[in-house]
Amino acid sequence: IAKYREKRPLLAGNIFLRLKLLMTWSKSAPSILESLVLLLVVVLVQAPILVIGCNSSIEITLVDENKNETHCRSCDLTHCDLGFGFSVRCGGTYPTDTRVECVPCIAGTNFSNVRDYSMCQACTICGENRLKTGKCDVEKDTTVCLPKCNEGHYFDNSTAKCPACEKCCHDGKDVHVSSCAKISGKNCKTRDPCTTAPSTDSKEHLQDHPISGWKIAFIVTCCLLVVFFVIVVTCWVKPRLRRKVLSRCRRTLYRLRSRHLM
């Protein structure tokens, strides 16, 4: 059972009684200076009683506002096992109805590797896209953040973060990163938008594929030849076909007319 050491506030009547004695004495005192000295002594005597509190290193302060009372609870009364932490911070101030107990740590979030009255400690966080070794469970944290990043990102020593690889601007201000070399077209550090607008990417693309221009010219030429052939056929063959059809129609009409006359 937890034992509490109670600190009750100084009663107002005690202060008023001392002030009354001071005033009675000052009437017969030879000087005002002696009265001021006596008043200073009274304040110095009462001050330690008014500010006295719990030991912030090994006790918890529990305050009952309704009764205007303060209780001090020793942290040594509770020792949590591995994987458990104190529900409150030793040295803190809480209401008297606060539950002071051991609570389990959360795997991947916090841990406790000691048997005492300390709270669970936060696990090591390496940051997004950063590689790491080890893990954090409720009893220990073996996480080690490596100066390496996932594919498509590079490690920035100044910020200990992993920004994404970006396209190069080819304006003389690019900073190439070896870890981004495998990313086609994106092997530079993150920076402000390119200040120039040269079509360097398109030039590099044409240099890598010089035959693409000849392919386009060949396709255009073939299309023009096909169109020309269709035009020639239409203009040359269609009139001859039309004359042939008209000739047959005339012969047919002539035969029909001859039979009708007979």
TrEMBL record:
Keywords associated with the record: Membrane, Receptor, Transmembrane, Transmembrane helix
UniProt name for this protein: Nerve growth factor receptor-like protein
Lineage of origin: Eukaryota, Metazoa, Cnidaria, Anthozoa, Hexacorallia
Origin: domain of life: Eukaryota
Transmembrane segments: 32-53, 216-237
Signal peptide: none
InterPro entries: Neurotrophin_rcpt-DD
